Amino acid sequence: MSDACVPADLLGRYATGDDLPEETLWVLEAHLERCPACRAALAGAIEADPVLPALVESVRVAVAPRLGPGRGRLWGLRHRARRAQARWAVPAVLPWLAMTVAVPLAATLLEAAGPGDMPPLLLLIAPLVPVLGVAVSWNRWTDPAHALVAVTPRAGLTLVLRRTLVALLVTLPPVVLAGLAVGTSPARWLLPGLAFTTVVLAAGALVGVGRAAAGVTALWSLAVVVPTLADAGDPVVLDAAAAPGWLVVALAAAAVLTHFRDRYRLDRS
């Protein structure tokens, strides 16, 4: 008697590629990741089919030479490390994150080499750095495997937040250090940066993270960066008095993100 939790007919239909409802596929694939008994029953269903075993064997023969020997403790450690990394970030994003870090560093050099009355260029750019990091962490244009990842059972807001956290951990420390080097306190831009990040994630559930990040960047540039550079003044919206307003924006965006969190299960990035 089988110990599988899923009915045998459903596993058989899944094994042969029948057109199952989308919500059934989500639940079934997520369950198969956690249940060895059902995976074993699925393997039995594949072996019982007259066509599938030959198909699976042909795929294995074609792919095996590219996978290496697949044995040994070192191979196992590398495999587990890559699986863990895939839950948080992908190698293809790292060059884009490096470019994101290079933006505030370039602004720091320009500010340090410029005249004393130059507007605080790094302060104007710093709130956007987390936004750029979030944009490259969940985007079809920067991740070649995005289409595959976005339709897996584990995809969704949790995966997006994991990659966002990695992006913030990579981009924020260099900006903080650069700001301290030119006398720009992180306290002035960290809360606006958090608000922008939350807004991008909330809007990204509706229009895609890349589009949301581009929209926030364009609005901030037109409304704050360009006028501040033109007037050679200090941005009032980054003063301590504006902190409550940024906190309200962040909380409101978090509420919107919570409401539309299921939209990240669709490929809208």
Description:
The protein has 269 residues and is mainly alpha-helical. The protein has two domains: 60 residues, no CATH class; 178 residues, no CATH class. Helix content is 69%, strand content 0%. The protein contains 13 helices and no strands. Helix 11 runs antiparallel to helix 12. The two termini are 45 Å apart. Keywords: Membrane, Transcription, Transcription regulation, Transmembrane, Transmembrane helix. This is Putative zinc-finger domain-containing protein.
Structure characteristics:
269 residues, mainly alpha, 2 domains, 69% helix, elongated, transmembrane helix, Znf_put
Given the structure, what is the number of helices?
13
Task: Point out poorly predicted stretches.
Answer: none
How many β strands by DSSP?
0
- Our count of domains comes out at 2
In terms of DSSP E residues, the strand content is under 5%
Mean pLDDT: 77
Helix content: 55-70%
The gross shape turns out to be elongated
Class from helix and strand fractions: mainly alpha
